[in-house]
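hiii so my PI (J.) wants the whole complex modelled not just the main chain, which honestly fair. so below is everything: two entries, each one labled with what it is. i double checked the lines twice but i was tired so who knows lol
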Amino acid sequence: MMSEHGKVVDGFRFMPPSLSAWIGKDIPDQPYSGKIPWTPLEKPIKEAAFTLVTTAGISMKSDPPFDLEREKREPAWGDPSFRKIPRTATEGDIEVSHLHINTGYIKEDINVMLPLTRFAEFEKEGIIGSLAPTCYSFYGFQMDATALLTESAPQMADQMRRENVAAVLLTPA
Amino acid sequence: MTPEFHREVGIPRVAAIEYPYGRPVGEVNDRQGQREVLLAALSVFEKAKEPGQVFNLPFTWPEEPKHTDWQPPEISPIIKLHLDEIKALGAKLRKKQS
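here's the output for the full assembly
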């Protein structure tokens, strides 16, 4: 774990201790031992096309929202679909459907979760090559990620390839 | 956000940040703060040289955890389902600490 300043992030700092203990009991103590996918960055970030992906359950008002009703009936189920979010989306264009966080802040300022405006600034300033036309949201509560991985992820990847995306920043909710 | 999950799933590059759930980039309408976080996250793309590296970002959230109001208005269905188990774990923890 790398830290140039001594800080080591405690991912459970904001969670009540009982909930941390319950969620943490399924996380291994040892480092991940499986194969981790790796695509080297092919060009400097100032030349690379980026897209953004979030797990926050953001959808365009013109699209169906994520299905929270089924999750209420089947608590271990999370909607495995995804939504395309155009880079031009603003708070007025979106719904945020998520049963595990306070969604109010995202509705006030989409950039706290999906930083479209900030990345458009970075593009204009030449910090990144570009922000792709399409960004994405899925719903992070996936106790069984099979459908997300086999159905949604390949479709997102196809669209990214069509838009020549070189790098993806994923912001978990 | 929760870099601990890296041990469970294996993430190619992690820019870990100790910010509340639902606001990993920063506070509402804090353009400068959001930019600093994102520039630090972008730097990870060039610093990471092999799969699985975790880079801890130096930022500190300005509120204490109990004031961050990140939780949903209603307990989520999965937590509701396991509430007794979670409460029992909490009681066990408190007993251990006392």
